[in-house]
Write a structure and sequence with these properties.
Length: 322
């Protein structure tokens, strides 16, 4: 009996040792050819340090009315390329790369007191961004996950928001896959942080499929568009930053708070959105006081890219800008 107990104890200790040290034995080689964010900047790119993060942005136009464009998950300010000039005819328009995306700096959480990729950090980054650019109030135009950041910001700082224009927004409460809460502490262990980059590098191979699904007519997605989306994958630490964002600290669920939104809201969605179904937009439009909804035919998850003429016509009509 004692021999069996010793065997079981030895096996248990060996298993613990394997689980503790084993992940660190898995090699995570550096990706070749990665460069700094600024080395990939365009001639019209600008950088500004906000809350100790170098934020990449572009702007055009100018007047008292200011539009701030917030892209979705896996995208960047590149996704607004088709409508930047159109917005600029009606005011000042600014698009910036949210943390973990585009050419905005990718700080590593171990160097910070808080994770720089969570929702709360995104909210305070937007507030600091507006403060430094001397923007007292703005129209927030948020696509997909950028719509979630826009809503969260409007809930915390309604006095800074003139209007919310949500484009195929994701504000929680859907049936998409989510990690169970019990799994989050595991993903935050040093072992999983070591392996994390390997888990997200698959995006480099499968990301094109997601881009194609975002369009109603995938045949209209050109190689230049794919290259524009994949450009940030050349930036140092893009894989680590994306992992940290995925498991950033929890933030209160947004959907139950939708009735508390105190600013005007307009929702524009694509009728052929295959990533977030239009019935979701119909549901949340009824939960937000006074929200107006418009669905564009033959458009997918990114109508501002796929259907820019129809999109801007709807924006101008909703905002009475014509």
């Amino acid at each position: 009996m004692k021999h069996w107990l010793k065997f079981i104890l030895a096996s248990f200790l060996s298993l613990c040792l394997l689980l503790t040290l084993g992940p660190f034995l898995v090699p995570v080689p550096d990706l070749p050819g990665l460069v700094t964010e600024k080395s990939l900047a365009d001639p019209d790119s600008k950088f500004i340090e906000v809350n100790e993060v170098a934020v990449h942005y572009k702007e055009a136009g100018g007047s008292e009315l200011t539009f701030i464009l917030l892209h979705g998950f896996g995208a960047s300010l590149f996704s607004w390329r088709e409508v930047m000039d159109d917005f600029s005819t009606h005011g000042r328009v600014i698009a910036y790369d949210r943390p973990a995306f585009g050419l905005t700096e990718r700080p590593m959480p171990e160097e910070w007191q808080e994770n720089p990729y969570g929702m709360k950090f995104n909210i305070e980054l937007l507030r600091g961004f507006m403060d430094q650019l001397e923007i007292e109030q703005a129209v927030l135009v948020g696509n997909s996950a950028g719509g979630g950041v826009s809503v969260a910001f409007a809930l915390e700082y309604p006095e800074r928001v003139e209007l919310l224009l949500l484009v195929d927004p994701g504000v929680g409460g859907g049936r998409g896959p989510q990690f169970p809460e019990w799994a989050l502490p595991l993903m935050w262990t040093p072992q999983m942080r070591h392996l994390g980059p390997l888990l997200v590098r698959d995006i480099a191979q499968t990301g094109n499929d997601t881009i194609l699904r975002a369009w109603s007519d995938p045949s209209r997605v050109t190689q230049d568009i794919l290259d524009g989306y994949r450009k940030p994958l050349k930036v140092e630490n893009w894989d680590r930053a994306l992992y940290e964002l995925t498991f950033a600290p929890a933030y209160p669920e947004l959907r139950p708070q939708l009735p508390n939104i105190m600013v005007p809201v307009m929702i524009i969605g694509g009728e052929d959105d295959r990533l977030i179904r239009p019935r979701y937009f119909e549901a949340i439009s009824k939960e937000i006081p006074g929200a107006r909804l418009s669905l564009l035919p033959n458009c997918g998850h990114v109508p501002h890219e796929e259907c820019p003429v129809e999109f801007m016509a709807e924006v101008e009509g909703l905002l009475n800008l014509k």
